[in-house]
Amino acid sequence: MGCFEITARSGLARRGRLHTAHGIVETPVFMPVGTRGTVKAMTPREMSEDLGAQIILGNTYHLFLRPGMEIMEAAGGLHKFSNWPHALLTDSGGFQVFSLSKLRKITPDGVKFASHIDGSKFFLGPVESMRIQRILGSDIAMAFDECTPYPATRKQAEKSLEMTLRWERMSYEQPAAEGQLRFGIVQGSMFPDLRIHSAQELSKVGFDGYAIGGLSVGEPEEMMFSIIDCTAPEMPEDKPRYLMGVGTPYQIVEAVARGVDMFDCVMPTRLGRHGSAFVGADTIPVKAGRYAQDFAPIDPECDCYACRNFTRAYIRHLFNVNEILGVRLVTWHNIHYFLTLMRKVRAAIEDGTFEEFRRNFAKLAGKSL
């Protein structure tokens, strides 16, 4: 048996189990983002024991710059360094090199860049990225790629994809940490034939899983869905499918309906830090003055710690006086919301009611299928 097994289906939606060195991950799954070795405002115990997160993300680029691999190696890897006992996925750093760093120079073997922190010069390519992820000891290491900017011309997309395919093959050739899985990333911008070509070429490599990258970069939502529609069928049926950096609750449910198994997004924590809480299929600005005398919980139907113990008025007060507890409570609620949504999705696939669940959620989000 491989690392991934499908246990139930409902249409194209898949219920599965991903076996990693640090435990089984039940899919479809949402992975909270811990960019610098921590999910912002949350402790590992809260994430694991209270919220039930199965897997979180770490960021190769940021951890490479700070604290650096010398410290990470001495600590024994990211699991030990951050006291996270469950599965970890690390991205390759490719997206951050192109989106954050300065003075980039692309070469056939990677990218010369200046740190966004202090301008220090570094080089990162598939060899270096996989070495960093090997030191981090993540359960899933992502191949090094370029996230094609949006919009891009066909010529730009073709050139980017050619380079990305080279880098991803090089990534696969690098040694991995013990038990470490490696995922390839499908690129090709918004050109369906390039996406199909990318998926077919990467399928030949033999990665343990496959991601759809380069989406949620400013394109219209319907374009995102159309790219998933043409890409997912070309990805290996027996391997997990990961949609990177997506997205809203509605987008996640729709991607599950198209056969995607794994998701990540900074939305729960980023919006939480700014006082926006998920309710229904949307958000409310709980820090707004209108909630100053609202003594209901964030969501009366939610059973998270924040909703069981505190009111909108109190949380609004915390934001108004710049108390960190306000950020923590809304972040807690938002992560609980996303993880609970995925539990509901898994249950619906198991009992064959996913299409009904999907229609009801679309209606809740004000969308028509």
Written overview of the protein:
The protein is an alpha/beta fold and 369 residues long. It has 2 domains: 4-265, Queuine tRNA-ribosyltransferase-like (TIM Barrel, Alpha-Beta Barrel), CATH 3.20.20.105; 266-363, no CATH class. Helix content is 42%, strand content 20%. It has helices spanning 44-50, 60-65, 69-75, 78-82, 94-99, 126-136, 154-173, 192-205, 221-231, 249-257, 267-273, 305-309, 312-320, 324-350, 354-364, and strands at 4-10, 13-20, 23-27, 29-31, 55-59, 87-91, 102-107, 110-114, 121-124, 140-142, 181-186, 209-212, 241-243, 262-264, 276-279, 282-285. An 8-stranded parallel β-sheet has the order 4-14-13-12-11-10-6-5. A 3-stranded antiparallel β-sheet has the order 1-2-3. Strands 7-8-9 form a 3-stranded antiparallel β-sheet.
Residues in helices, as a percent range = 40-55%
What fraction of residues sit in β-strands?
15-25%
Number of helices: 15
Label the structural class.
alpha/beta
Please report the first level of CATH classification, the CATH class of the largest domain. Answer: Alpha Beta
| CA-based gyration radius | 20 Å
Query: Which of globular, elongated, flat, extended, rod-shaped describes the shape?
Result: globular
Count the domains. 2
CATH architecture of the largest domain: Alpha-Beta Barrel
What is the average of the pLDDT values?
97
